[in-house]
């Protein structure tokens, strides 16, 4: 078997393009990418590092992204959660489940803990959203909702995480111009029932330049990856 295998997942008239980085020791990680121009290929650096440590993962291009194609207007944050569930159901992942989410994908990861037993949750530069934005198709209406000043304050993410009993790691970029530190702080603080929880702030990093910055100092990169591994194992 090759170290990376592609597979397709039918979803509401679309075909989600997914892949599996085969892990030597375990294959439990569902990895969710972010919004904008994000794709599963953009997270190769982290997933390859995890695979080198024996940990396999599955990731897919959400509708409107990468090889899946389609338009963002055909999707929403709620749809992305359903897409993740469809990929999970079709994937070769074994339990207990681990979910890694980046940016918007972090909120989808949090929502998945409501329907699935999640053993560990890794939230990277995590975005959260007001419930009123959840089902709104991506486009001008969605943007208008989330661009309201501090629209995320009434997010249900805090309440959902307050019931989470697995292991939690939140990774924040020091100079994130998209996600304020208050969000990461509140996510960490909400998880009072978590088996373990950790907030790691990557010094000098930006929202879209965290792992690539860490890679410039291999020792720092290894420390961050080891945090992820220790949370997952």
UniProtKB/TrEMBL annotation:
<keyword id="KW-0378">Hydrolase</keyword>
<dbReference type="InterPro" id="IPR022742">
    <property type="entry name" value="Hydrolase_4"/>
</dbReference>
<dbReference type="Pfam" id="PF12146">
    <property type="entry name" value="Hydrolase_4"/>
</dbReference>
<feature type="domain" description="Serine aminopeptidase S33">
    <location>
        <begin position="28"/>
        <end position="134"/>
    </location>
</feature>
<protein>
    <submittedName>
        <fullName>Alpha/beta fold hydrolase</fullName>
    </submittedName>
</protein>
<dbReference type="InterPro" id="IPR029058">
    <property type="entry name" value="AB_hydrolase_fold"/>
</dbReference>
<dbReference type="GO" id="GO:0016787">
    <property type="term" value="F:hydrolase activity"/>
</dbReference>
């Amino acid at each position: 078997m090759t170290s990376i295998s592609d597979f397709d997942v039918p979803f509401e008239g679309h075909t989600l393009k997914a892949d599996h980085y085969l892990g030597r020791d375990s294959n439990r990680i569902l990895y969710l990418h972010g919004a904008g121009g994000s794709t599963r290929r953009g997270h190769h650096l982290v997933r390859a590092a995890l695979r080198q440590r024996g940990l396999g993962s599955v990731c897919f291009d959400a509708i409107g992204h990468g090889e899946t194609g389609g338009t963002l207007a055909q999707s929403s944050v709620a749809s992305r959660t359903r897409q993740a569930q469809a990929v999970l159901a079709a994937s070769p992942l074994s339990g207990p489940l681990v979910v890694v989410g980046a940016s918007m994908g972090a909120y989808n990861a949090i929502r998945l803990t409501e329907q699935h037993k999640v053993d560990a949750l890794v939230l990277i530069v995590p975005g959260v959203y007001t419930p009123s934005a959840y089902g709104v198709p991506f486009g001008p209406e969605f943007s208008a909702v989330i661009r309201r000043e501090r629209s995320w304050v009434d997010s249900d993410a805090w309440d959902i995480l307050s019931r989470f009993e697995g292991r939690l790691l939140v990774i924040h970029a020091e100079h994130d111009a998209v996600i304020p530190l208050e969000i990461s702080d509140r996510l960490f603080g909400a998880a009072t029932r978590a088996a373990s929880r950790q907030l790691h702030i990557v010094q000098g990093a930006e929202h879209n330049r965290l792992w690539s910055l860490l890679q410039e100092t291999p020792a720092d990169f290894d420390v961050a990856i080891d945090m992820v591994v220790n949370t997952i194992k």
